[in-house]
Amino acid sequence: MDVRVGGRYHIRFGVPGQETHDVEGTYLEVEPHRKLVFDWGWKSTPERISLVTITLKPSGSGTELVFKHEKFYDQAARDSHNEGWAGAFVKFDKLFID
Length: 98
Fold this sequence. Notes:
- By secondary structure, the protein is an alpha+beta fold.
- The chain has one domain: Alpha-D-Glucose-1,6-Bisphosphate, Chain A, domain 4.
- 22% of the residues lie in helices and 47% in strands.
- It has one helix and five strands.
- The protein has a five-stranded antiparallel β-sheet, with no helix packed on it.
- The longest helix has 22 residues, at 75-96.
- It is globular.
């Protein structure tokens, strides 16, 4: 990860014995401690670029994370990402909140 405007990232993840997922993109906005905006493209379908925005805001004694993923190729891609992100955020909660 090269977290700067124009910098690139590459993430590979999966479950042993199942499909490996491979995604990469470019950081479009970087505001330290406040906001990240980057494009999101699977290596298997590089023509289908979507957009992720993560905003961090002080909230009480903690931080509120606002996550938005948009500009999907189609509804099926949106629904699949929704399912994947929902699972990821359950794990995120257990790691940071529980």
